[in-house]
């Protein structure tokens, strides 16, 4: 367990691989911690310096009172990378983690040389949708929304065939600190990255599950199209978390992207 103080909060992070390995930084989705990447890691190239962290309000990282802003989440990621001495990394972001990736690439191009945007967009939903979700969580907790969230997270096949794993993800979701879930929901609600993302020119791979109910393929494709030269791929039989449902295919896409762009 590694915990450090950044921007006045305690941040939980993990580093694997050689000190001189090519750096790959992962940012997780709303309602998950950095274990969301566990199944993917064996399918990535050897010798990488893999950095994962629990974003503000999630996992073992502090969950201060809100509101949170996307700038806070971007600054947290930048502070961790500065603390670890990381430059020119591949940044892989899932859902809100992909929004963090886009914001970080725009604000600190010295830190990010390429991105993998998985199941994310430059703008996700609208203020009304997120306000309704926040109100529901305040009134009934995350458990009041768990079924609808899990339906968006996972494919029909996962729900039918992997009940034990589904229970684990349900527990992770429902044990997310309320203030962290609400704070990050509010950060998503106020974020529109269309203009800044359209100015990005770094190598980018966009990935989405074919059954994603949170950021459907057309939404992810629209964001990918903002970035000149980006690649876009749909992973079949996966919902919002293809790194969980289809880690081998997700890993193969990322590995090929890295090879094509001389990353690591």
Number of domains: 1
Helical proportion, percent range: 40-55%
Compressed to H and E, one letter per element, the order equals: EEEEHEHEHHHHHHEHEHH
Would you state the CATH class? Alpha Beta
Our count of helices gives 11
Going by CATH, the architecture would be 3-Layer(aba) Sandwich
Largest sheet entry:
8 strands, mixed
Strand order of the largest sheet: 1-2-4-3-5-6-7-8
Q: Please report the distance between the alpha carbons of the first and last residues.
A: 26 Å
Q: What class do helices, strands and sheet pairing give?
A: alpha/beta
Query: What is the typical, i.e. mean, pLDDT?
Result: 97
CATH superfamily: Alpha/Beta hydrolase fold, catalytic domain
Give the amount of beta strand, in percent: 15-25%
Q: What is the CA-atom radius of gyration, in angstroms?
A: 17 Å
Question: Could you give the count of β-strands?
Answer: 8
Low-confidence stretches: none
In CATH terms, what is the fold-level topology? Rossmann fold
Principal-axis shape equals: globular
């Amino acid at each position: 367990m590694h915990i450090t103080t950044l921007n006045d909060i305690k941040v939980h992070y993990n580093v694997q691989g050689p000190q001189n390995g090519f750096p790959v930084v992962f940012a997780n989705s709303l309602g998950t911690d950095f274990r969301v990447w566990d199944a993917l890691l064996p399918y990535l190239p050897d010798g990488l310096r893999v950095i994962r962290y629990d974003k503000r309000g999630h996992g073992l990282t502090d969950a201060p009172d809100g509101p949170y802003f996307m700038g806070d989440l971007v600054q947290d990621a930048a502070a961790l990378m500065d603390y670890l001495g990381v430059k020119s990394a591949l940044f892989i972001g899932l859902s809100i983690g992909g929004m963090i990736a886009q914001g970080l690439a725009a604000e600190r191009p010295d830190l990010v040389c390429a991105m993998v945007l998985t199941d994310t967009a430059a703008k996700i939903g609208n203020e009304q949708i997120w306000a309704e979700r926040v109100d529901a969580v305040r009134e009934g907790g995350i458990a009041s929304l768990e079924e609808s969230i899990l339906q968006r997270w996972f494919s029909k096949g996962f729900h039918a065939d992997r009940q034990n794993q589904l229970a684990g993800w349900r527990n992770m979701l429902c044990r997310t600190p309320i203030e962290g879930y609400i704070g990050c929901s509010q950060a998503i609600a106020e974020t529109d990255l269309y203009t800044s993302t359209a100015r990005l020119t770094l190598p980018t791979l966009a990935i989405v599950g074919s059954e994603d109910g949170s950021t459907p393929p057309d939404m992810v494709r629209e964001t990918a199209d903002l970035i000149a030269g980006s690649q876009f791929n749909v992973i079949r039989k996966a919902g919002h978390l293809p790194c969980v449902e289809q880690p081998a295919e997700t890993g193969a896409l990322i590995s090929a992207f890295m090879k094509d762009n001389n990353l690591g």
